Each structure stands twice: as C-alpha cells, then as structure tokens.
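Hi D.,

Good news: the full-assembly prediction came through. Inputs first.
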Amino acid sequence: MPELLEVKDLKTQFFTRDGVVRAVDGVSFELAAGETLGIVGESGCGKSVTALSLMRLIPQPPGKITQGSIMFDGQDVLKMDDDEVRGIRGNNIAMIFQDPMTSLNPVLTISRQITEALELHLKMDRAEARKRTVELLELVNIPSAKKRLDDYPHQFSGGMRQRVMIAMALSCNPKLILADEPTTALDVTIQAQILDLLKNLAREFRTAFILITHDLGVVAGMTQRIHVMYGGKIVEKADTNELFANPKMPYTWGLLRSIPRLDENRKAKLLPIEGLPPDLIAPPPGCRFEPRCQYRRDICREKEPELIGIPNAKADHEARCWGTQAGGWLVDSDWHRDVGDLAALDAIKAEVADLPPDVKRVEAADDDKKKGN
Amino acid sequence: MLKYVIRRLLLVIPTLFFVALITFVLAQAAPGSPFDKNETKPLPVATIERLNRFYGLDRPVYEQFVVFLGNAVRLDFGVSLQRDRSVNDIIGQGLPRTAQLGVMALFVALAVAIPLGVVSALKQNSAIDYASVFLSTIGTTIPSFVLAIVFIYFFGVLLKLLPFVGWGDGLDRRMIMPTVILALGPMAFLTRITLASMLEAIRQDYVRTARSKGLGEQVVIVTHVLKNALIPVATVLGPAAAALVTGSFIIETIFSVPGVGREYIRSILARDYPIIMGTTMLYAAVIVIANLTVDLVYGMLDPRIKVA
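Then the structure:
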C-alpha cells in the first residue's frame, strides 16, 4: 500500500539567543491511508513541533525546518510554495489543537469559523456551507446544532468547543488529522468522550490520524501504532499491543512504570523517571536518555544508538537502545523485575539534587518554550 | 439593550449635577470678580454693587446655584456678564467649529494610527516600525502647545507654507495646522495601543488555528487578528474623542480658532460665570456621551461583553 505520509529525517530547529534548539532532530516515520498513529513523549520532546512541521506551521523566525522531507500524497510539503501549502492545510491535513479555550476565535461565530474553510477549499457558497456546518455539528454530537450556529465560542463548554474543533478538522474530509494533545485541557470525564468521538469518526471517514500525547493511557485504545519520542528523536516504534506487552527501551519502561495501575498492590510506589529532560541546545553526545537511564553502560555515553529492529520482538518493532539491540545486555531482561543498576539510579538522583532549585524551574520553563506553544 | 441605554442615560443626571456643583463652587471661590478687569479705570463701587445685584451675584452661593440649576434644566445658561449675548448664542456659534476641529483631528489620528500600528506589528524592526515608535514618542512626550509653536515657526513663519491664524467655513487651509497638531497626541496614543494589541492578538492560538485551515495571510490578519486587536482600540476611543473636544481649547487659543474652547479660556480669565458653567456642562455632556457610545460599540465588537 502506498504511504499517505512519509517523513524522512525531519529536523526542525529554533534559533534562540541561547543557541539553536534542536526541537525535532532527525525524525522519520510513515503512515498509510486510514492508519492511526500515536506519538508519545514528555513535554518538550518535540512531538508538537513535529506535528506543526507537517503543516509548515512553525513560526519562522525563530523556527526553521532545516532538513528532511515530508512526502504527503506523493508531494514534498517542504518543497511547496506558500499557496500550495495553504491548499493542503485544512483541506488534506487538518489539525486539532490542545486548548479549545484559546484555539477558537472569540469574536467569530462558531458557524463562521467552520464555514470559512468550506468556502475556501470546497468552494461552497454561504448557504451550502451553513447547511454542511449543521451536519458537521450534529456529527460531533452538539445538541440543537442548528440553533447554536450563531453562538460564539464563549457560549460553549470546553468539551463542546473541542467537538467544534473536531467538526472543523473534519469539515473538508481531510486525509490526515493531527490531534495535538486534544484532551489534555479537558476534564477526565470528557476526555473519554472526545477520544471515542475522534476514533469513531476517523474510522467512519477512513481518515488517518496522528494522536500526540504525553499520556500513554490515552493512546492505548486509540491507535494502531505508537512512536515514543524523547529529546527530539523517536526512540521506539512498535504497534500498540506490542509496545505495551513488550517495550524495548528503558525510557518507555520508565513511562509505563509511572502510570498507576488498578491491579497493582496498593502499597507499591510509582517509580518516576529521575533526572531532568535533555537540554536540546546541547544534547548529550551519546544516547539522549543516557543521563537518566539506570541501565546505562559506558557505550551509551560515547555513541548514539540507531533506531533499528531488535531481538525478542516483532519484526517491525524498533528501538534506539544499545542494551536491547542485538548483543546488548538487556536483550533478555524483564523490565518488570529488573529495575536496573541502583548505583546509577542514586547517581542520577544525586545529580539533580545538587542543582539549585531555580535551575530546575528554569529548565522546566525552557521546555515549555521549546514545545513551541 | 434599550433598558441599558435608558439606565445609562439616567446615570448621566447625577454625573452632570456633581460636575455643575463642583464647577460652580470652584468658580465662585476663585478670587476676583467679573467686574474688576479694567485696572486703569476701575468701576465705581456703587456700579459694581448694582451690577452684582442685577445679576444676582450678591445672593448666597447656594441660592445662585439653585437658580442656575432651575434654568439649566431648561437648557438656559443665562447671559454673558461681559458681552450682551446669551451663553447659548455664544456656544452655539463656537460649537460647530470646535466639533469640526475635533472630528477632523480624530479622523486624522485614526487614519494614521491604525494602519501604522498594524503595519509596524506585522513588520517588526522595519523602517515603518521605527517611524511609528518615533511618532508615538514625539506625540506622547511633547505637549501640543510646544509642537504648535514649533510648527508655526517652521511651516508658517519660515517656510510660509501654511496659514496659522483663524478658521474658515467648510474646508480651509487654515484648518490644517490646528487639526494636525491636535491629532498628534491621540495619534501617538492610538498607534501604541494598536501596535500592542496587534502583537498580543497575533500570537494567540486561534490565529494558528486560522492558519491551519489554510486561510491566506490577508484573511488571517483582517478577519482573525484585526477584529480582536481593534477591541482595545475602541475602548480608548471614547476618552480619546473626549480629549480631542475638550483638549482643543489650547489649540483654539493658539491658532485663534473661534470655537468653544477659546470662549472657555476667555470666560475663566474674565470670571464670566455663566459661560464657564455653560461650556463646562457642554464638555461634561460630550465626555459622558462619548463614553456611553463606546460602551455600546464595545458590546457590538466583542460578543463576550454583554450589554444589559
């Protein structure tokens, strides 16, 4: 099957006063038509910037896509002129943003914000576009949609606004929807509804989507495959069941260990990932996760591992880890039992403890900035 | 909506009452009298007393105030103490000129400030951006009477390009300088507000959403950014418009524009109480109405503000 989307060696950088932030640093992945993919990682790992790069929505300056190619439907998005890119945005690729409170224009009616794309891409007239908008709003379960067409965003709740965003994204029947943390800003009770809606509609319209989240729990039932990102790179690729059953990268283990489980002994403590996220201006020379990895060896600091297939796993399961790759020291280890080198763990904790508290805060703030939000 | 307007209009009454009360008391408390202005040939004491009795100035202040209020309700502000003309007549003659000056200045200020603010927000660090910073610094920091004198010297006296005395009917070259000078202050202020609120609006999430829909840059700026960015500008327009009308008395005096502002200054110097009261009440009414208009317009521009 020909791929719908083929991203090769994508690098997006932000040129700041402190240096070049390598927010996305050589990311490659593919997506077939109708396929669903989850991109998971902590704040500042480059997942949002990856999504924005696909639509060339990176604010420039300071951001710039410095390398790579994004083949969408046989055309390289990065080689298009501005008009061609605008022809794709909203039409073939649509995006759902994180915060529905701020992502809708407060002074335009709901209908206007949906009809403008319909008029632009599908060449509908006002009346047609309004009719279609009612259908779309009904599709995303907005009650009495017809009456609410001329409401303003502030008259809608957060969950309803995110439904509007979904309706907006679906409006021109895109081939690909990018959902960037679509439920992070919502109540937990609403999260499941929105995710279900997104999943069902995407299936109904055979739309491919990429779900970007920091929450492994969110992607679990949602996507066919998952890519884990860390420090601007993809560190593990697998299909969803395989990733949860047989993760092959210590960072993924860390993520899984930090999720509370219902079937766990109640006294068991959650194990956080120690240390700080990597500095994307001067990333570690070896494995990006090495400074926080309790399984590390000397080679991890010296040389960066490739993202390649690994033993004891499905054929398309890839990980970026010296330990789990062929000949590594973690090939046969069971992550449930083996918690790694405790001395290394203490060293990581000690390193962070030595930092004055304000450094930690500054780094956390930097992360938010790098996310490009 | 209608109820809101009526309520706001009713609130105008106490506002105007207190403005009248304070002005009346202050004007009377100021030393001097309307009849002591000719120092070389002072009026005989008996004449002054007769004049005072004739105009009711010999009665207690509160009594005078009550009489003033009773007449003012019927829009009768009395007769000038120096000139044998009614206050309404004097104001009625000056008002069209003052209004024309104010409206033209507001128009000039807006016509320059909004495009300038928008363009300098879109093209930061460009020549236009620096020009707008320069303009708003000049307009904000240098008082209009200083600029007026500088302009008169350069364009009027040195280059002889523009006349600088008097006014005219319809449109007249004599109007250019007073209008421009009067417009400079609000122009500077409005440019800064436009620039700041454009920069604020342009980095909002909904602008990214608009771009993600594939809208052209022009549509994004006009329908999504500008519509939001102009709301703060509209809120300051009321005070700005009021400042233009009330602030013009300095300009009117400098350029000898026969408007209400010049009468205002003249009346204060002459202790011409009826004219002081008449012009003050006019200014107060203008400010109150300008603010009410802006509040109503604000409710139309921003759907989140509900006028009720």
